[in-house]
Amino acid sequence: MNQEDNTLEIVASSVEEAIQEGLKQLNLTREGIEVEIIDKGGRDLLGIGKHQAKVRLIVKKGSESLEGDNVVKEETQLEEGDNVVGSIESEPVDKYELAQREAEQIVKDLIGFMKVPAKVKAKLVEPEDERDRPMILVEITGRNLSILIGRRSETLNALQYITRLVLCQRLGNWMPISLDVQGYRFRRERQLRQLARRLADQVVQTSRKQVLEPMPANERRIIHLELRYHPFVTTESIGEEPTRRTSIFLKPKD
After folding, report:
1. What span, in angstroms and rounded, lies between the C-alpha atoms of 31 and 60?
2. CB 122 within 8 A of CB 104
3. CA-CA distance, 4 to 249, in Å (whole number)?
4. What is the mean pLDDT of residues 193-216?
5. Are 154 and 148 in contact (CB under 8 A)?
6. Fold match flag (95-182 vs 187-250)
7. Which superfamily does CATH assign the domain made up of 95-182 to?
């Protein structure tokens, strides 16, 4: 404790634990101090790892130390209070609702770290195919956000990958998630679906295989899904990353 200004700094796993530890060391009640929170503690950047809370306790003038039975009484009251709080059961949170909140906060942290002003909103998207799972879509809106997309959506895909990793770490399980900036993915998906159908028609007309330019895995998947029920053509991915491509060719005759 700093005797000159009657202050004491305490580090603990939470703000409340730090305050209680300080009260024990000072032998005072809560009314005898002022609390200055230096660091609330909690998760580090992106939720990976944790750091401790830090508070500064300032002793009020005229405060008297607790003695004997008063100390026991104070500790007993705290213990009873803790039991009361611990007995309250929190309502269960829907896993998708929790995933939306966490994903939204992760993306806010990411673009905040990049110093890009934008709005972030997460929502649940029901699957088109009953065999798929619902997906968390995080939409980022604002002005001049091309920096978040990058060449061939490389930056956007990287942000999505990091978000998925951190979300999985927080939830303890894998959750389908997609990031979109100003509707970019929606427009790109529409372009790819149109391209897939057009090239499929060319394959049928010419009987010649069509190979698309290198694409990231999520875009190749769009091509595969668009043509998976096509009566005459099929698709496959060929090559190695980062130049892996999608090939469209005629189905073998029975």
Report:
1. 9
2. yes
3. 83
4. 94
5. no
6. no
7. K homology (KH) domain (3.30.300.20)
Return the pLDDT at 231.
Answer: 95
Residue 215 has pLDDT above 90, yes or no: no
The secondary structure of 52-109 as a DSSP string is: -EEEEEEEPTT-----THHHHHHHHHHHHHHHHHHTPPPPP--HHHHHHHHHHHHHHH
pLDDT in tens, 149-176: 998 788 998 999 999 999 988 888 888 8
Q: Of 83, 51, 57, 65, nearest to 5 (Cα)?
A: 57
C-beta separation of 138 from 178 below 8 A: yes
Q: In sequence order, what are the beta bridge partners of 37?
A: 55
Angle, nearest 10°, between helix axes 95-113 and 154-171? 130
CATH 1.10.357.140 for the 187-250 domain, yes or no: no
The answer to which of 6-15, 84-93, 234-243 has the lowest mean pLDDT is: 84-93
pLDDT for residue 110:
93
Domain locations in the chain? Answer: 7-86, 95-182, 187-250
Q: Confidence band (pLDDT; 50, 70, 90) for 46?
A: low
**Do residues 214 and 243 lie in contact, with contact meaning Cβ atoms separated by under 8 Å?**
yes
Bridge partners of residue 135, in order along the sequence = 125
Residue with tokens 């009953």: 130
- Whole-number Å distance between alpha carbons of 47 and 172: 13
- pLDDT tens for 31-45 read 888 888 887 776 655
